[in-house]
Every structure is written in structure tokens, then in C-alpha cells.
Amino acid sequence: MHSDEKLVQLLETLASNPRMSIRELAAKTGLSYTYVWRKLNTLYSKELLSLSVTISSEVAGKEVAAVKIKSQNLEQFIDNLLNCNRIIVTFRANSNEVFMVVYGKDKHEIASIVETLKSKIGHISEVSMDYGILPERYMIPLKNNYLKCKPPSSCERCWLGSVNAAPKLLSE
Fold first, then answer.
1. Is the Cβ–Cβ distance between 145 and 163 less than 8 Å?
2. How far is CA 132 from the centre of its chain?
């Protein structure tokens, strides 16, 4: 079996049950324990693979907005945008334009998040937002361990990169 085929088989098996042990992965794929361990270790250490926790939109919030921001200052903030639990996806259209999908409990909360982003980024030439609703049971990936995000007061945790503090619970 070719190396790429082995990797695809390993990743497909891992995706079917991310809680599988290396021994179980090796048994299910027919690959050696050593190969599986080395390949996963390499992928994790190079940050090419990560396992993440997701939370249902039923719990986190169903309101969503597609947001476009134009600014000359975007490059220095991309990592912060990628670290925010309230931003589902971020992508750049060009060097001064970013699109993102932001979720919240309601439109007011989303607007508060966007206002916080605007204040952090600065020198914004354009912002546009279109609102919608996430599908039922949509699973939102958590990017840091601060689950009790209440913008704008708690945004400093993500923006300052202090995401390794003790996890906060949604019910706190």
C-alpha cells in the first residue's frame, strides 16, 4: 500500500472514532502500531492534525452572521480571529479583506462581537453583515477553553492569547 493510501486509511479510521487508541487504530487499519504512532505524532507535532471539542448550536447559539471586514491592519489580527470561539470560520479574500462567520445567542450579541472586532482591528474601511440561522444540531468547534464568552468584556482572554487558563463552564 502506498504511503498516501496508508495515511488516508488512518485518517478515515480516526475520523470514524477519534477516541480510538493507537493499538485499536493499528488493528482496524492493518497498519503497524509503530507506523500509526509515528505518523500521528508527526502530524500532531507539525500541527497538521488536531482533535477538537465541538458544541451543538442548540447550546451555543443559533444566530449567525456572515461578516466582511476591509482594513489595512488585518494581517496582524488573523491569528486572533482564528482563536475566537465565536468565529466559526475565517478566510481572507485578499490582503485587506477578511470574511468570517460569527455566531451568538441573538443578533445583538453578534453585533457586540463585531463591534469588539472593529475596535481591536481599527482603520476599517468597510463592514457588511448578513444574518441567518445555523442548522439544527450544527456542531461548532471550540478553539480555546474559555466557554463562558460574554463579548465584549471577555474578549481579552482570546485576544491576549491567554487561552491556557482553567476552563470556564457555560453555566457559571
1. yes
2. 19
Q: Are 157 and 163 in contact (CB under 8 A)?
A: yes
CATH assignment of the domain containing 115: 3.30.70.920
Structure confidence by residue, pLDDT tens digits, 31-65: 999 999 999 999 999 989 988 888 898 888 899 99
Ramachandran bin of 114, using left for φ above 0, alpha for ψ from -120 to 50, beta for the remaining angles: alpha
What range defines the domain where residue 152 resides? 55-159
Task: List pLDDT tens digits, range 75-118.
Answer: 778 877 888 888 999 999 998 899 999 998 899 989 988 888 88
- Specify burial of residue 60 (Cβ count, 10 A radius: 0-12, 13-18, 19+): buried
How far is the C-alpha of 72 from the C-alpha of 51, rounded, in Å?
A: 33
* Cell numbers for 146: 474559555
The one-letter amino acid code at 130 reads D
**Listed residues 11, 27, 45: the one ending a domain:** 45
Distance CA 141, CA 88 (A): 7
Give strand ranges (E) for the chain.
54-56, 63-71, 87-94, 97-104, 124-133, 139-141
Q: Which amino acid is at 152?
A: P
